[in-house]
Amino acid sequence: MKHFTSIADVQNVDQLVEQAILFKNNPFQSELGKGKKVGLVFLNPSLRTRLSTQVAAQNLGAEAIVLDIGKDGWALEFNDGVVMNGDKAEHIREAAAVMGRYFDILGVRTFPGLTDRSEDYAEILLQSFIKYAGIPVVSLESGTRHPLQSLADLMTIQEQWPHSHKPKVVLTWAPHVKALPQAVPNSFAEWMIQADVDFSIANPAGYDLAPEFSNGVSVFHDQAEALEGADFVYVKNWSSYEHYGQVLSQDEKWTFGQKQLSLTNNAKVMHCLPVRRGLVIKDEVLDSKNAIHLEQAENRVYAAQSILNELLK
Ligand SMILES: NCCC[C@H](NC(=O)CCC(=O)O)C(=O)O
Ligand SMILES: NC(=O)OP(=O)(O)O
Questions:
Q1: Where does the Aspartate/ornithine carbamoyltransferase carbamoyl-P binding domain start and stop, copy by copy (predicted)?
Q2: 38 CB less than 6 Å from ligand 1?
Q3: How many Å lie between the centroid of ligand 2 and the Cα of residue 181?
Q4: Residue ranges in the chain assigned as alpha helix (H)
Q5: Which of 105, 140, 243, 272 gives the lowest tally of CB atoms within 10 Å of its CB?
Q6: Is the pLDDT confidence value at 70 over 90?
Q7: Angle at 280 between CA 274 and CA 286, to 5 degrees
């Protein structure tokens, strides 16, 4: 593995999940990180990703150094050939190259701007870090994907499903007050399409994911129809891809509560967090035994550890 930015970078997904489960059982079995340094650069906020990746690096014997570059770093210029006479103090060409000299692996979080679809979907920011750092780069959530989250999600589903038949997994949109990225649902879909599950998506009209992420998946605009018999429900808000970055609906009928849960096969309910209680998922579900969001968050450590371990090989 050279970089980890999507499932396409993984040679053997089953083996990766197996390794993550092995790390969960014995976190200190690998010392590949000894003497190595992992830089974690955040252009946007994070709780789980920064902490779980730091713990993962430490479990491998590596040191993780965090820079909240969006807050504490120089404002970065990503465009080439510009005269930098505005508010941007440093070009990505130097910033990434310098970090490439300090670290062995670089993790980067770059949320999409949600105004220019082609710019976000070309992953200009993440690709610039890869181009100029010259070391392995791990996506800590980029414009279009959140692969460390998806790996933890797949691991969680596998742990929670002891049966030999495929589970029915439904990704459902839920309302939100802000325009959020499509990265988490895109990525979850990408991983579920390759997994041994029966996968479908429920969202209001206007919220269909980009075709390259939902190719061949059944998409329902009727949430109740989609939820019937579900074994796992992944609840998440995202802004419109079609009307790019817009909030088209705040329909509270899509808030996931007991009413929705009762349509399922006593489903396990998932969310990547942070979750807005009462708006995205109701307390009655989050505080029930069906909710496995904390298991997902816990598994972030072992997902990150298996990726760092691969890159350190
Ligand atoms: N890393 C997990 C999710 C991050 C982000 N959520 C958020 O920005 C929520 C912010 C809020 O609720 O105000 C997203 O949806 O991609
Ligand atoms: N799920 C997730 O990535 O959480 P953070 O945004 O807090 O890192």
A1: 2-159
A2: no
A3: 13
A4: 13-25, 48-59, 69-72, 92-102, 117-121, 124-133, 147-160, 183-194, 211-214, 223-227, 258-261, 283-286, 293-312
A5: 243
A6: no
A7: 75
CA proximity to 120, closest of 152, 142, 87: 142
- If we measure between CA atoms, which residue out of 107, 38, 31, 37 comes closest to residue 69? 107
What ipTM goes with this model? Answer: 0.99
CATH number for the segment(s) 149-297: 3.40.50.1370
Query: What tokens does 235 get?
Result: 């609840």
Equal fold, 7-145+299-312 vs 149-297: yes
Whether residue 225 is annotated as binding a ligand: the answer is no
Domain ranges of the chain: 7-145+299-312, 149-297
Q: Is 276 in the pocket of ligand 1 (CB under 6 A)?
A: yes
In the chain, the percentage of residues whose pLDDT exceeds 70 is: 100
CATH topology of domain 7-145+299-312: Rossmann fold (3.40.50)
Residue found under tokens 């404002």: 75
Q: Phi/psi of residue 91, each to 5°? A: -90, 150
Binding site annotation covers 51?
no
Best probe residue, ligand 1, of 148, 238, 272, 277 (max atoms within 8 Å of C-beta): 272
